[in-house]
Amino acid sequence: MSRNLILGAALSSLVVLAALISFVWTPYDNAALDIPNKLQAPDALHWFGTDHFGRDMFSMIMVGARTSIAVALVAVGIGMALGVPLGLTAAARKGSWLDEVIMRGNDLVFAFPSLVIAILITAVFGAGAINAIIAIGIFNIPVFARITRGAALSLWEREFILAARVSGKGAARISAEHILPNVANLLIVQGTIQFSLGILAEAGLSYVGLGAQPPTPSWGRMLADAQTMVSFAPHLALIPGLAIIVTVLGLNLLGDGLRDWLDPRIRVARA
C-alpha cells in the first residue's frame, strides 16, 4: 500500500470525522455571537480564534466541513449517475447519431464552467447550496461521460466482449455486466478527483455569494468575510484556507493512491 494512499486516507478521514462529529458536538454554538470577544487570536478557549462576530472559528470549520462535503458528494453523485450511463451508451453506439448527440452535448456543457452555470441557475432560482449542487453536478456529467466512453471503447473490441455478443447478449446487458465492472476502478479514482474539485468549486461559489447562505458556515464565505481583515486578523483567512488545502490535498493523494492500488500494471511495475 503506497504512502500516498495512507496519507490521503488519513487526511480525508480527519476531515470527514470532523464533519460527522459536528452533527452531535462542537466546542461552541457556531451561530452564537459574542461581540465582546470578536477577532480573538487562537488560544486555549478558542483553538482557532474567533471571527468578527465573536463566533468560534473551530466550530465553524467543523460545520463548514459538513457543508463542503455534502455539496461535493451530492454533486459528484449526480455527475456519476447521469454521466456514466451516457458514456456507456455512447460507447455502445459508437459512430451513430446517438453517440454524436451525447458527445456534442458534453462539449456544450464543457463550454460553460461551473461558476457560469451557477450564475445562470441563481439568476433564475436564487443563491443557495442546492443550486450550487446542481451547478457542480451538471459540470461533472460530461467529465464522467467522456471518461466512461473512452474506457469502454477500448473494451468493446476485446475477446470476452465479442464472446458475449456471439452468445446473444444485447448492448445494454453487455454494458451493465461486462463493461461497467471493468471501468469501475477508473471511475472510483476519477470520483475522488472530482470530489476534491467539488470542494474547491463549492468554496469558490460560496466566496462569490452563490453557495450556502448564512447562517450556514462555509469555508468559501469565511474567506470572503476575512479579505478585509487579513492585516489585523490573519487567522480568519489562514484557517479556512488551510482547511481547503488539507481537504483537497488529502483527496488528491487518496485518488493517486487508489489509482496505484487498483491498477495491477502499476503494482507489477513497482514490485
Could you explain the architecture of this structure?
The structure is a single chain. With 271 residues, this protein is an all-alpha fold. It has one domain: MetI-like (MetI-like fold, Orthogonal Bundle), CATH 1.10.3720.10. Helix content is 72%, strand content 0%. The chain has ten helices and no strands. Helix 5 runs antiparallel to helix 7. The longest helix is centred in the last third of the chain and has 37 residues. The chain is elongated. The model has no long low-confidence stretch (mean pLDDT 91).
Q: From the alpha-carbon coordinates, what is the Rg to the nearest angstrom? A: 22 Å
Strand content: under 5%
CATH architecture descriptor: Orthogonal Bundle
Number of H- or I-type helical stretches: 10
- Taken together, the total number of domains comes to 1
Overall structural class, as computed from helix and strand content, comes to: mainly alpha
The chain-level mean pLDDT equals 91
CATH class annotation: Mainly Alpha
Give the beta-strand count: 0
Q: What's the CATH topology name?
A: MetI-like fold
The CATH superfamily turns out to be MetI-like
Percent of residues in helices comes to over 70%
